[in-house]
């Protein structure tokens, strides 16, 4: 059976019909004594959404996941997880509907892969345990290793066993903490494919990651946390919010008087030289400014190599926000 | 009162027993101690003075045999939570729907089953050796200690229970498995005081005394179990600090 067929086979979740968000977090705060792990955090995650949760070490990401996973109680604020209010009394019901995969998979090394999964299937009350385990292992391409002791597996394979374990209970929300940590590129790609399949099956995924390329590729929206929530939005929206549009102009030879040229060009707000013969222009609208810049360059007889729109990555957004905090702390 | 899901308890027991079986140091440790504690009572069978009437020395080997249900589970119980934390398996386990009480009972049962089984097996071997090989006078002396034999039978699971509860309580708080095991073993010894008093004749070893002390021990076990359930707070187990309240 191909992996893709196995993935489609394993999750037969009834399609989600309500429009209720999978996760609602409202002014949530957690303090340990005098230390604040995270403060006044609010966001919503829609059903079937892949939500990226980014932030530097110590920002409160793992504590947030533990709080939403009912492992620790919030100090203030409220949340609804998988449609159930986050209270101590609802812990069992919430945990029945979610799965959490910590960064370290935490497997019993003296048990086999199948025995590890069998244990967790028992805790979740999974029916038809054998076929469920087989399908989960096929989903992460580990069916052939089910009889291996986990202690003999590489870090990457253990991570995949952890992922199979998270799939066992058919969760409404999966909290994945650095799921591709320690995986080789092929295995990481398989995990990405699996996350996409899960998204199409209506599973909401809360993805904590340090890999910004991964977040950009997989996540519908991202949140950046640094004790307080710095921003939430789609990666493209965040780029637009934080950075003005820019054009990168490259010419064979440096321009004689670029200041005079660009100031007179409609749509160009400001400019700076980036390198010999390279200029970065802040523009109001690249679609308006680019033709004007091309005409102006041709008008002064410049040999144009390229005119392109500057692309800001999610990493730029992340660094901009996190660096802002670092600068603020210095002041 | 929340309902217990016995299938989750059974899952924990199955996993624990599998895990013990595959750890050679646990298996060897569990077998060596009872074997050592069996030597002196067996030697007594062959070397003991044949003067059974009212001789309290016939009861002394039984004290040694009762060390087995105290000491055997203490190391396993101390390992039960500290070991999970040290291997990094505690957090994934606590993110499942398992309830606090199911976790405690599953862990305790997994320690109880081999410990009590092994203790009764050793007692059985001892009594068979006495019946088959001991001087008839010595054998009669030992089998005449009816209250002590009843105490042996009743106290075994109760002392095991105490040892497990104490070991698990220490295991929650201890930073290291080794510390947990040492503290757990020391803390599990006090109830043996009652047995010592019976063996030395300070408390007359009667059937009534055996039943009364068994009932007291059972009550202490239940209270201790309830008392430590507060320690098994998810937040405390994961972060080391007590859960805060909004």
Reconstruct the topology from this structure.
The complex is a heterodimer of chains A (331) and B (246).
Chain A: H1 3-10, E1 23-32, E2 35-45, E3 50-54, H2 61-68, E4 76-81, E5 84-85, H3 91-97, E6 98-101, H4 113-124, H5 129-139, H6 155-167, E7 173-177, H7 185-200, E8 204-208, H8 212-218, E9 221-226, E10 228-233, H9 235-242, E11 246-251, H10 258-263, E12 268-275, E13 278-283, H11 286-299, E14 304-309, H12 314-330
Helix pairs in contact in A: 1-5, 4-5, 5-6, 9-12
Chain B: H1 6-22, H2 24-47, H3 60-87, H4 90-94, H5 100-133, H6 136-143, H7 146-173, H8 177-187, H9 192-199, H10 207-229, H11 234-239
Helix pairs in contact in B: 1-5, 2-3, 2-5, 3-5, 3-7, 3-8, 3-9, 5-7, 7-8, 7-10
Quick description:
The complex is a heterodimer of chains A (about 325) and B (about 250). In chain A, about 40% of the residues lie in helices and about 25% in strands. Chain A is an alpha/beta fold and about 325 residues long.
Walk me through the structure.
The complex is a heterodimer of chains A (331) and B (246). With 331 residues, chain A is of the alpha/beta class. Chain A is built from 12 helices and 14 strands. In chain A, 38% of the residues lie in helices and 26% in strands. In chain A, the strands form 3 sheets. Chain A has a 6-stranded mixed beta sheet with strand order 6-7-8-3-9-10, with helices on both faces. Chain A has a 4-stranded antiparallel beta sheet with strand order 2-1-4-5, covered by helices on one side. A 4-stranded antiparallel beta sheet of chain A has the order 12-13-11-14. Mean pLDDT of chain A is 86; it is low at 1-5 and 12-17. With 246 residues, chain B is mainly alpha-helical. Chain B has one domain (7-238). In chain B, helix 2 packs parallel to helix 5 and helix 3 (60-87) runs antiparallel to helix 9. The longest helix of chain B is centred in the middle third of the chain and has 34 residues, at 100-133. Chain A binds chain B through residues 31-33, 66, 69-77, 91-93, 95-96, 98-102, 104-111, 115, 119-120, 122-125, 162, 165, and chain B through 5, 7-8, 10-12, 14-15, 18-19, 22-23, 87-99, 234-235, 238-239, 241, 243-246.
């Amino acid at each position: 059976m191909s992996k893709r067929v196995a993935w489609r086979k394993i999750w037969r979740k009834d399609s989600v019909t309500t429009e209720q968000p999978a996760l609602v977090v409202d002014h949530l705060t957690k303090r340990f004594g005098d230390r604040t792990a995270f403060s006044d955090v609010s966001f919503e995650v829609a059903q079937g959404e892949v939500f990226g949760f980014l932030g530097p070490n110590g920002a409160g990401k793992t504590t947030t996941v533990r709080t939403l996973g009912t492992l620790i109680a919030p100090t203030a604020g409220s949340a609804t997880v998988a449609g159930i209010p986050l209270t101590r009394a609802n812990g069992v019901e919430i945990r029945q509907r979610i799965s959490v995969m910590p960064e370290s998979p935490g497997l019993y090394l003296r048990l086999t892969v199948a025995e590890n999964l069998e244990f967790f299937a028992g805790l979740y009350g999974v029916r038809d345990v054998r076929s469920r385990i087989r399908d989960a292992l096929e989903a992460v391409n580990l069916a052939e290793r089910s009889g291996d002791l986990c202690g003999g597996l590489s870090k990457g394979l253990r991570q995949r066993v952890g992922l199979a374990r998270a799939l066992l209970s058919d969760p409404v929300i999966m909290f994945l903490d650095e799921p591709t940590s320690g995986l080789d590129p092929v295995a990481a790609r398989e995990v990405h494919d699996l996350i996409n399949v899960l998204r199409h099956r209506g599973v909401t995924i809360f993805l904590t990651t340090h890999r910004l390329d991964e977040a950009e590729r997989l996540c519908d929206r991202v949140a950046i946390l640094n004790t307080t929530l710095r921003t939430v939005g789609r990666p493209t929206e965040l780029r637009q919010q934080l950075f003005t549009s820019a054009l990168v102009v490259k010419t064979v030879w440096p321009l004689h008087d670029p200041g005079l040229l660009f100031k007179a060009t409609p749509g160009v707000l400001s400019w700076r030289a980036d390198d010999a013969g390279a200029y970065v222009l802040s523009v109001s609208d690249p679609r308006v400014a680019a033709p004007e810049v091309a005409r102006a360059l041709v008008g002064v007889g410049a040999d144009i190599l390229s005119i392109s729109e500057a692309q800001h990555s999610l990493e730029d957004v992340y660094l901009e926000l996190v660096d802002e905090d670092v600068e603020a702390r210095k002041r | 009162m929340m309902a217990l899901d016995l299938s989750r308890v059974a899952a924990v027991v199955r996993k624990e027993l599998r895990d013990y079986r595959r750890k050679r140091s646990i298996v060897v440790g569990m077998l060596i101690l009872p074997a050592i504690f069996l030597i002196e009572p067996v030697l007594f069978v062959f070397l003991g003075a044949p003067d059974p009437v009212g001789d309290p020395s016939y009861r002394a080997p039984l004290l040694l045999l009762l060390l087995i249900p105290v000491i055997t589970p203490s190391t396993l119980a101390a390992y039960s939570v500290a070991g999970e934390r040290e291997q990094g398996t505690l957090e994934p386990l606590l993110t499942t729907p398992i309830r606090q009480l199911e976790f405690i009972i599953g862990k305790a049962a997994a320690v109880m089953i081999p410990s009590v089984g092994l203790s009764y097996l050793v007692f059985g071997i001892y009594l068979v050796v006495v019946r088959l090989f001991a001087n008839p006078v010595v054998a009669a002396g030992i089998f005449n200690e009816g209250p002590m034999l009843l105490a042996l039978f009743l106290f075994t699971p109760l002392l095991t229970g105490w040892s497990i509860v104490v070991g698990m309580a220490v295991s929650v708080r201890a930073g290291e498995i080794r510390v947990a095991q040492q503290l757990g073993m020391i803390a599990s010894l006090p109830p043996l005081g009652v047995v010592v008093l019976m063996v030395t004749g300070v408390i007359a070893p009667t059937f009534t005394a055996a039943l009364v002390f068994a009932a007291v021990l059972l009550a202490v076990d239940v209270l201790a179990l309830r008392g430590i359930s507060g320690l098994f707070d998810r937040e405390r187990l994961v972060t080391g600090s007590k859960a805060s309240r909004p």
